[in-house]
C-alpha cells in the first residue's frame, strides 16, 4: 500500500508534510504555484505588515558554515497589496504570515483577506531583527494572548503562532498563544546571530545582527518541538534546518505534525520538497506506517 | 567545477579604468570570478553601503576580474568613487549562462549591459562570426568599442557603434539598427543585455524572424541565491533560473518588458 503523506495540524489539513517556510520566495502567486506543484504541502507567505516595507540594505543574506545569516528586515508589499495578488488563488494552500505590533494592526490585515482562499494565518512572534515586532512581541506573553484572541474573534480561518528564542522563555509564549486560542504552533524562527568579516573587521549584515538558519539550528529546533510537545497539547509545525527526509522525520518524532523548509532551498533548490516526500514515503513503507500521524511524537516514548 | 561562494571574500581594487565620464571599470584579483561563464554574476559588497548584483567584466590578465559601474544611485556612485587600494567583498558566481550557438551571431547591448556580452564574445567559438551592436546616448558615453575589437581580433567580426544623438557611429537606437540589419543578414542567434525596453524590442524582433534569442535580465536582488524571492518574475527567480532566458519563455512572460518589483516586492511599471 502506498503510504498516505497527508497531515492534519489541528483544523488544517494538507496533502504533504513539508511546507515552504515564511520569508523564503514568498511574494508572487506564480512562484507559490511552482513550489506547490514541486511537492510542498503548503506555502507560507513572507510576513506581511499593514504597510509595504522595503527592508534593510544589502547584505541581507549571506551563507556561513552551517547555514545562513539574514536580516532582510521583513521587506514585503503590505497586506492589502498581497491580498489583492492572491485573490485569484484557487487550489494552492497558502498560509498568510502576519507581522505587527498591536492587535488593531492584525485585525486590519486579517480583514484584507476576507475574500481570499487562505488556509491559515501564521503570526510572526519571532523575527529576531526588526524592532517593535516579531520577537519583541513574542517576548510579551500578555500581548501575544491579546493579539491571538483578537484575530480568533475576527476570523474562522485557523491561526498559528510562530515562536522563537527571545528573552522570555519561549514556552511561556507558546502558553500565551494557546490561551489566546491558537490552533497550532510553529517552532522555531531563526536565532539571533551575527557574523563579522575578519579582513575589514565589519559586521557582514548591513543590520549587523540578524537571524541564523540552516543545519546549525536544527538540533535546537528539534529540542524546542520536543519540549512543546511534552508540555502542551497543541499541534506543532517543526521549522529550523530541515533539508532532508531524515530531518523531517526527526521533527515528526519529536512531536511535529508537519515541517517547514527554508534555507535548504538555497542549497538544493525546491527539489527538496519531492525529496522529502519520497524519502518519508519509503521510510513509512519500510517500517509499516500508513499515515504520518502514527509517527508524531514517537521519540517521547523513551 | 566552479566553486560557488555564499560569503563575501574581500578583494582590493588594483586598477581603475575610466571608460566614460560616468562609467568606470574596477579591477581585482579573483581566480574564481576570472573565469565565470557569460551571463553569470557576482554579488559585490561595498562595505557600509550596499551589496549589488553585477556581471563580471573580462580582463586580459589571467586571474583578474572586474566590475564596470555607471554612477547613478547612491550605491553605484559609492562603488564608482572607490580608489585603488580600497576594498570590496565579492561572492558568487551565481546564475546560468548564455547558450552560444554556431554560426553568425549578433550581440546587442547598451550601457553596462555590454559587460556580459563582452564575456560572451570572449567565449565565442572560433567558427562564430560575431556582430556587436553597442548603443549609447552620445559619443562621450560610448565605451568598450576597442575592448570588443581586441577580444574578437581572431574572429570574423564587426562592431557597430550606435548613438542616439548621432554624434558617433550610426544614428539611432541599437534596436533600429538591428531591425535594418536583420533584413540583409541572416543571424543564427541574437544575444542581448541592457535596458529592459531595449531587450524587449530585440526579443520581439528576433522571435518574429524565428531567430534564436536570449536576454540577460536584471531585477531587484537581495540574496542572489534563490532564497529571498526579491527578483521573481512570473514563476522564475532571475538569480537562480536566469539571468539568461530564452526568447520563447520571454514571449510568454507577463512581466518582461512591462514590470519589475520594488524593494518591497510591489510590481512597478517600466
Question: Which key phrases capture this entry?
Answer:
heterodimer, A: 302 residues, alpha/beta, 8-stranded parallel sheet, 10 helices, 19% strand, B: 270 residues, Elongation Factor Tu (Ef-tu), domain 3, Rossmann fold, 3 domains, 7-stranded mixed sheet, 18 strands, 34% strand
Could you characterize the architecture of this molecule?
The complex is a heterodimer of chains A (302) and B (270). The radius of gyration of chain A is 18 Å and the shape is globular. Chain A has helices at 29-37, 79-85, 103-112, 135-138, 141-154, 170-180, 218-231, 245-254, 264-268, 272-287, and strands at 7-9, 12-14, 18-20, 43-44, 61-64, 67-70, 94-98, 120-124, 159-163, 184-187, 191-193, 196-197, 202-203, 210-213, 236-239, 258-261. Chain A has one domain: TIM Barrel. Chain A has 302 residues and is an alpha/beta fold. Chain B is an alpha/beta fold. Chain B folds into three domains: 9-94, Translation factors (Elongation Factor Tu (Ef-tu), domain 3, Beta Barrel); 98-211, Rossmann fold (3-Layer(aba) Sandwich), CATH 3.40.50; 217-270, no CATH class. In chain B, a hairpin with a 2-residue loop joins strand 2 and strand 3. The longest helix of chain B has 13 residues, at 196-208. Chain B is globular, with a radius of gyration of 18 Å. Chains A and B meet through helix 1 and strand 5 of A and strand 5, strand 7 and strand 15 of B.
In summary, what is this structure?
With 302 residues, chain A is of the alpha/beta class. In chain A, 33% of the residues lie in helices and 19% in strands.
Amino acid at each position: 500500500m502506498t503510504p498516505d503523506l497527508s497531515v492534519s495540524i489541528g483544523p488544517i489539513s494538507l496533502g504533504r508534510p513539508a511546507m515552504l517556510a515564511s520569508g523564503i520566495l514568498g511574494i508572487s502567486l506564480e512562484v507559490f504555484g511552482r513550489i506547490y506543484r514541486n511537492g510542498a504541502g503548503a506555502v507560507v507567505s513572507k510576513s506581511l505588515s499593514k504597510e509595504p516595507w522595503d527592508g534593510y540594505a544589502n547584505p541581507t543574506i549571506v551563507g556561513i558554515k552551517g547555514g545562513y545569516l539574514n536580516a532582510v528586515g521583513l521587506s514585503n508589499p503590505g497586506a492589502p497589496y498581497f491580498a489583492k495578488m492572491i485573490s485569484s488563488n484557487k487550489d494552492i494552500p497558502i498560509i498568510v504570515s502576519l507581522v505587527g505590533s498591536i492587535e488593531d494592526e492584525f485585525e486590519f490585515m486579517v480583514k484584507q483577506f476576507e475574500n481570499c482562499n487562505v488556509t491559515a494565518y501564521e503570526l510572526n512572534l519571532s523575527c529576531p531583527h526588526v524592532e517593535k515586532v516579531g520577537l519583541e512581541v513574542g517576548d510579551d506573553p500578555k500581548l501575544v494572548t491579546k493579539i491571538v484572541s483578537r484575530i480568533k474573534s475576527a476570523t474562522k480561518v485557523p491561526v498559528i503562532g510562530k515562536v522563537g528564542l527571545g528573552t522570555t522563555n519561549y514556552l511561556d509564549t507558546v502558553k500565551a498563544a494557546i490561551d489566546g486560542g491558537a490552533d497550532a504552533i510553529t517552532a522555531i524562527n531563526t536565532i539571533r546571530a551575527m557574523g563579522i568579516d575578519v579582513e575589514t573587521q565589519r559586521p557582514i549584515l548591513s543590520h549587523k545582527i540578524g537571524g541564523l538558519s540552516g543545519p546549525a539550528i536544527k538540533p535546537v529546533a528539534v529540542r524546542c518541538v520536543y519540549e512543546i510537545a511534552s508540555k502542551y497539547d497543541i499541534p506543532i509545525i517543526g521549522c529550523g534546518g530541515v533539508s532532508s527526509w531524515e530531518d523531517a522525520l526527526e521533527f515528526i518524532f519529536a512531536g511535529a505534525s508537519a515541517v517547514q523548509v527554508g534555507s535548504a532551498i538555497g542549497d538544493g533548490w525546491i527539489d527538496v520538497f519531492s525529496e522529502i516526500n519520497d524519502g518519508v514515503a519509503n521510510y513509512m513503507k519500510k517500517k509499516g506506517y500508513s499515515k504520518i500521524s502514527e509517527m508524531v511524537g514517537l521519540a517521547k516514548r523513551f | 567545477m566552479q566553486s560557488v561562494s555564499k560569503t563575501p571574500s574581500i578583494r582590493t581594487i588594483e586598477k581603475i579604468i575610466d571608460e566614460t565620464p560616468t562609467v568606470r571599470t574596477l579591477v581585482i584579483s579573483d581566480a574564481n570570478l576570472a573565469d565565470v561563464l557569460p551571463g553569470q554574476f557576482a554579488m559585490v559588497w561595498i562595505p557600509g553601503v550596499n551589496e549589488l548584483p553585477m556581471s563580471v567584466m573580462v580582463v586580459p590578465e589571467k586571474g583578474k576580474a572586474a566590475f564596470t559601474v555607471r554612477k547613478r544611485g547612491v550605491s553605484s556612485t559609492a562603488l564608482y568613487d572607490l580608489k585603488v587600494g580600497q576594498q570590496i567583498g565579492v561572492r558568487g558566481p551565481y546564475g546560468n549562462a548564455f547558450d552560444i550557438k554556431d554560426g553568425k551571431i549578433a550581440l546587442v547591448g547598451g550601457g553596462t549591459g555590454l559587460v556580459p556580452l563582452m564575456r560572451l564574445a570572449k567565449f565565442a567559438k572560433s567558427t562564430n562570426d560575431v556582430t556587436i551592436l553597442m548603443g549609447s546616448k552620445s559619443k562621450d558615453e560610448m565605451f568598450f568599442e576597442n575592448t570588443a575589437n581586441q577580444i574578437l581580433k581572431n574572429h570574423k567580426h564587426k562592431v557597430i557603434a550606435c548613438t542616439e544623438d548621432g554624434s558617433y557611429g550610426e544614428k539611432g537606437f541599437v534596436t533600429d539598427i538591428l531591425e535594418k540589419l536583420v533584413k540583409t543578414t541572416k543571424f543564427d542567434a541574437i544575444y542581448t543585455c541592457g535596458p529592459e525596453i531595449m531587450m524587449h524590442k530585440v526579443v520581439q524582433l528576433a522571435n518574429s524572424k524565428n531567430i534564436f534569442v536570449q536576454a540577460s535580465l536584471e531585477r531587484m536582488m537581495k540574496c542572489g541565491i534563490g532564497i529571498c524571492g526579491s527578483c521573481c518574475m512570473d514563476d522564475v527567480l532571475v538569480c537562480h533560473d536566469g539571468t539568461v532566458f530564452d526568447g520563447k519563455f520571454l514571449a510568454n512572460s507577463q512581466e518582461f518588458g512591462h514590470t519589475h518589483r520594488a524593494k518591497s516586492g510591489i510590481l512597478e511599471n517600466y
